[in-house]
């Protein structure tokens, strides 16, 4: 419950109060998630710690992207309906599944 509430509030604060807007907020949280992904592959930082850091940061990213899709144009959004915004996100997710290569999991013995 804590990451959900904090993440939503942080995403809204970044876009609105901090003045970064939806695009700026998406860049900030996307960049932070990219740093975590880089740390996953390039460092020996605990993968559990990195997972939870990414888990917490994905919520504010989702908030600013969701707000960008459905908030009024006068507020910097695209003013899509909830159904249209959901369809856009669904198509992005499905596209990413096919765009990024998948490797079978290694079996431990």
The total number of structural domains is: 1
Number of helical elements: 4
Q: What is the helical fraction, as a range of percent?
A: over 70%
- Overall average residue pLDDT: 90
- Helix and strand run: HHHH
Number of strands: 0
Give the DSSP E fraction (strand runs of 2 or more residues): under 5%
Structural category is mainly alpha
Computed over alpha carbons, the radius of gyration is 16 Å
Distance between the termini: 37 Å
Largest sheet: none
Regions with little confidence, pLDDT below 50 for 5+ residues: none
How would the global form be characterised? globular
Describe the structure in brief.
With 109 residues, the protein is mainly alpha-helical. The protein contains four helices and no strands.
Key traits:
single chain, 4 helices, 0% strand, globular
What does this structure look like?
It is a single chain. This protein is mainly alpha-helical. It is globular, with a radius of gyration of 16 Å. The chain has one domain. The protein has four helices and no strands. The longest helix is centred in the middle third of the chain and has 24 residues. The N and C termini lie far apart (37 Å). The model has no long low-confidence stretch (mean pLDDT 90). Helix content is 73%, strand content 0%.
């Amino acid at each position: 419950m804590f990451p959900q509430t904090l993440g939503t509030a942080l995403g809204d604060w970044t876009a609105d109060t901090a003045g970064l807007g939806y695009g700026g907020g998406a860049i900030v949280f996307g960049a932070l998630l990219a740093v975590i992904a880089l740390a996953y592959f390039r460092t020996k930082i605990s993968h559990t710690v990195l997972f939870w850091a990414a888990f917490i940061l994905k919520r504010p990213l989702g908030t600013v992207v969701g707000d960008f899709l459905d908030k009024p144009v006068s507020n910097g959004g695209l003013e899509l309906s909830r159904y249209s915004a959901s369809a856009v996100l669904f198509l992005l997710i499905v596209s990413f599944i096919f765009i990024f290569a998948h490797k079978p999991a290694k079996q431990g013995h």
